[in-house]
Design goal:
Elements: H1 4-18, H2 23-30, H3 36-51, H4 53-64, H5 73-88, H6 93-106, H7 113-133, H8 138-141, H9 145-155, H10 157-166, E1 174-177, E2 185-186, E3 192-194, H11 200-204, E4 208-210, H12 213-222, E5 229-232, E6 247-252, H13 255-267, E7 273-277, E8 290-296, H14 319-332, E9 333-343, H15 352-358, E10 361-362, E11 381-382, H16 385-388, E12 394-399
Parallel strand pairs: 5-6, 5-8, 6-7, 8-9
Antiparallel strand pairs: 1-3, 1-4, 2-3, 9-12, 10-12, 11-12
Helix pairs in contact: 1-2, 1-3, 1-5, 3-5, 4-5, 4-7, 5-6, 5-7, 6-7, 9-10, 14-15
Length: about 400
């Protein structure tokens, strides 16, 4: 029999790589019936396997003597899961071998059982030594080569490796307290508390919101006040929009996400937030003369890879869209109004290059948040997972010339 946790992890891995499903959604479905303990194990297995798949495939190719790409999908998923247990967890080798074999058998591939058993036994004997011998870099830490190249270019080799290591570790659990008190540790970000687990009941009741310190920092940098008009151009799911004071117009292009944004704003008691389902690049002319704007732009997400294990395999930079959104924000605020540009990525092409191209006046942020200053451009903020133990965000505050 296959344990419920391994079954859920296997189904998640299979859907992510064979059906292009998002890991969090696939896992939510696969683990719906699990108790808390099994759910935790299943998530560790599934997310770890997805995260480390490049390195795992290399090990299976080397020790399995058959290319991973040529295997039947159920065999491929079972071997990846078993290889992760053998390479990165303290699972007893016989348990990892037996359960991987049973996953293939229950998939109806009896003809592949002997092969799976043979490969898993070779992995149990050699994977740790093989992994330990890999040189430092993208293959060892399981990233696309282009990500390592970007980080090495922007941060240097040592910090690039530190960043890769940091984003293979579970992220800290932080929530924003909306009302009431919680059992958690206060942090340097006002209202942000570090917790051992997220209280889903408190989330459902709108008392807290899961949100990293870096994400909350971006909302705080906007600095809006009661009586001001604020435009949030890319607002869903609403974590930052519901932090903002003043009269907030929250724009979201996709109808489903706009509905989710409305629900979240209502749950969190953010009556000052009005949701507009529209393309931010094609707003009607009456949306103008705002005091402040927030452009939390779509991006490659290279700062949140620890929380989103499959993102590293689907990420792509979006500088053209980011420049367009920043231009729209500048057109929609009044002369002298401010724009905060934030992206959850660590990539100069999407960060400082986009801001430099805007031609807007900079409002330096170093004095306000010295701990999080950009290591090269101190007028900006750049949270770094390996330095700050939170997600990676670039944040700039700009002003439209009066």
């Amino acid at each position: 029999m296959v344990s419920p946790a391994r079954r859920a992890a296997y189904e998640t891995v299979l859907r992510v790589f064979e059906q292009d499903a998002y890991a969090d959604r696939a896992f939510r479905t696969a683990a719906a019936e699990l108790d808390q303990r099994d759910r935790g194990l299943a998530q560790r297995l599934a997310y770890g396997t997805v995260q480390r798949v490049r390195t795992l495939d290399y090990a299976i190719d080397e020790l399995g003597r058959r290319p991973v790409r040529k295997l039947d999908p159920p065999v491929r998923a079972a071997l990846r899961l078993g290889a992760y247990e053998l390479g990165y967890l303290e699972t007893a080798p016989h348990a990892a071998v037996n359960e991987s074999v049973e996953l293939v058998r229950t998939a109806g591939l009896e003809r592949a059982v002997a092969f799976t058993n043979a490969v898993m036994r070779r992995l149990s004997e050699g994977i740790r030594e093989l992994l330990d011998a890999l040189p430092e870099g993208a293959l060892r830490h399981s990233y696309p080569d282009w990500v390592e190249e970007v980080w090495t270019r922007d941060l240097g080799k040592e910090q690039s490796l530190a960043l890769m290591r940091a984003q293979n570790e579970p992220p800290e659990l932080v929530v924003r307290v909306v009302r009431g008190e919680i059992d958690g540790e206060p942090t340097d970000i006002p209202g942000a508390y570090r917790v051992e687990r997220v209280d889903e009941t408190a989330v459902a009741e709108g008392r807290i919101w899961p949100q990293s310190r870096a994400s909350q920092l971006a909302g705080l940098v906007v600095g809006s006040a009661p009586g001001e008009r604020v435009l949030d151009l890319c607002a869903a799911p609403g974590g930052k929009a519901t932090m903002l004071a003043g009269e907030v117009t929250a724009v979201e292009k996709h109808p489903g996400r706009a509905r989710e944004l409305e629900e979240n704003a209502a749950r969190l008691g953010a009556a000052n937030v009005s949701v507009v389902c529209a393309d931010a690049l094609k707003l009607p002319p009456e949306f103008r003369d705002y005091d402040r704007a927030l452009v939390d732009a779509p991006c490659s997400g290279l700062g949140v890879l620890a929380a989103r294990p499959d993102l590293r395999w689907r990420a792509k930079p979006l500088p053209d869209l980011q420049r367009d959104l920043l231009r729209v924000a500048a057109e929609r605020v009044r002369p002298g109004g401010t724009i905060v540009y934030s992206v959850c990525t660590i990539n100069a092409d999407e960060n400082e290059a986009v801001v430099d191209a805007s031609g807007l006046e900079l409002e330096p942020l170093e004095a306000e948040w010295p701990r999080y200053t950009h290591p090269k451009r101190r007028e900006f903020l750049l949270t770094l997972p390996q330095r700050d133990q939170t997600s990676g965000f670039f944040i700039a505050r700009l002003r439209r010339p009066a």
